Each structure stands twice: as C-alpha cells, then as structure tokens.
Amino acid sequence: MSKKWSITVPGSTANLGPGFDSIGLSLNLYLELTVSLAKNWEIIHVSDHLPQDFVIEDHLIYKIAKETAARFKKTLPPCRIEMRSQLPYARGLGSSAAAIVAAVELANLVCDLQLSIQDKLNISSQFEGHPDNATASVLGGLTISQMDEQGIVDTIHVKDIEASFVVFIPTVELKTSEARKVLPAQFDRNYAVRASANANMLAASLISKDYERIGKYMESDLFHEPFRSSLIPNFDEILRTAKQAGAYGTALSGAGPTVISIIPSAIGAQFVSTMKKRFPTHEILLTKADHQGVSIQVLNDVFT
After folding, report:
1. Which annotated residues bind ATP (predicted)?
2. Is 62 labelled a binding residue?
3. C-alpha dist (Å) from residue 97 to 30, 44, 64, 175, 270
4. Which ranges in the chain are annotated with CATH 3.30.70.890?
C-alpha cells in the first residue's frame, strides 16, 4: 500500500435558492490534504482559513475518518496530515462537507476499504445530514440529490455548467445550526405548493442549462431565504446591485452568510470589479464549477 497521498476536495455551494438541502454545486475552491502514515497522529494546518488551536481527538477529519473505518470493522492507523484550505469556515461554502468527504477518502485509502462512488455519496451525506454539499464535493459539477431514511443517496449529476459564479464572503460567520433556528417548523399547503413549484423549476432549468431561468428561480426561494436574509450583511443590496450589473440571479450560498451570483462568463472581470467597489468589506471571488470532484494523487511509490 502506498504510504503517501494527496487528497483534493472542492468546496461547494448549496440550495441555489429553493433547492433546499438537495441541490449542490462544486466550486473551484479547494481543501487539500497531504497524508502519510506515521507512528503518531499529527495534523498541521497551513492555511489562514484553518484554526491553529485544536485537539486532534476533536478534529473533524480525525473523527469522521475514525468512524468510517469503524463502520467496516477496521482500525484507523496514525497519520501525519498537512491541511490547506481555500474555504473559510462557517461561510456557506461547504467547508464541513469538504472535510467530511476528505476524511471518508482518508479512511478509504489508509484502511483499504475499496469504497465505491455510491458508498462515498452515502457515507459522506449521512455524516453531513443532507446530500447537497457532500455529493457535489464527491462528484464535482452540479448535483440534485435525495437521501432516504436508510441513508441511501440518489443523485442526478449535471456536468459542464457554462457560467461563472461570484461569491460575496463577509467577515462574519454563520453556522448552519444557527441559521436553521430561524426557519418555521411548518408551512401551510398553498405556500408549500408555491415553494415546491419554484424548486422544481430551478431543478429543471439547471438540467436544461437555461441560465436566464436558473437566475429567475434562484431568486424565487420561499423555503429559507425570506427567514434568513435579515441575518446576512447587505443581502438585499447585493441582490439588487448584481442584477443591475448583469447577473442571471443571486442567492444565499447554503445557509449563508456568503451570497452567490451566477453570471455570464464573458462579464466576469468587469462584474467583480464593479462589486468590489460597491462592497469593499466583502471578499469577492470569481469562481467556476469544479468538474472533477474529490481526487487522489499518489505522492510516492513505497509499498509494504
């Protein structure tokens, strides 16, 4: 078995408006792990987006990898891990899902679990609690997914999204658990029918790659954005300004607080320049969909 690997996982955005807990899109912002077998556990963070003070036993990568191995009655061997991340924590860019996908892949490699793609989709989505971000990070591209009561994931995978995406990242954090607290416990029937119809139209538009309609239905959410928008810095102003600058549509990225716009690729540089002038307190990044998903590179050829 090879003793050293690189694991690269794309971050992701979820929901894209009304696709609540089911639609995910991978982005070319990455979490990278360099993993080698070792005598003792060591996790080294070499990124500004990762905390420097932590206990290994409480680290998400360690916990998920150990539990994944235990599911298959294997013992996770000690590893030395160097982590680099372009994904700010608690900003709605799939940092936790990327870490979970990386941890499942870590266990798969060092314990020789021989997991299938379906296994990875199921396990990572079960740990995450919903399949949107996790499936996008595993497969790349856009995913529309459902997870049943047994934790089995069914996914439609859409590739070659011919548009660009701009993320507006504020300085504040917003944990998904906190963002869920503001959501109503139930909707009345007529409201739910409208919300569901908008989600259906978003999914159909994404599959048909009708970008004008994608933008329209990204901005039609009734499930969560009406209740979360007050938690998001400059949300209404970003939505309005992005539309004026040529965006197809704008929505929360996951639970927020990051906001994401889908735009024609041809206007990318100009759009970002305009937005940076209008929203100087946000980090504004031009991105595209990642189409590879989680990837593994063998860094040496030492075998035992």
Report:
1. 88-98
2. no
3. 12, 19, 11, 13, 31
4. 164-287
91 marked as binding residue? yes
Task: Tokens for 200, please give them.
Answer: 């259906």
- Domain 4-159+290-298 matching CATH 2.40.50.140: the answer reads no
Q: Cβ contacts of residue 239 below 8 Å, gap of 6+?
A: 219, 250, 259
Q: Is 98 annotated as a binding residue?
A: yes
Q: At what angle do helices 132-139 and 95-110 cross, to 10 degrees?
A: 50
HSE, CB side, 13 Å, CA atoms: give it for residue 40.
3
- Is 93 marked within a binding site? yes
Question: Which pTM value belongs to this model?
Answer: 0.94
Q: Which fold has domain 164-287?
A: Alpha-Beta Plaits (3.30.70)
Check whether 94 is labelled as a binding-site residue: yes
| 22 appears as a binding residue in the annotation | no
Is 226 part of any known ligand binding site? no
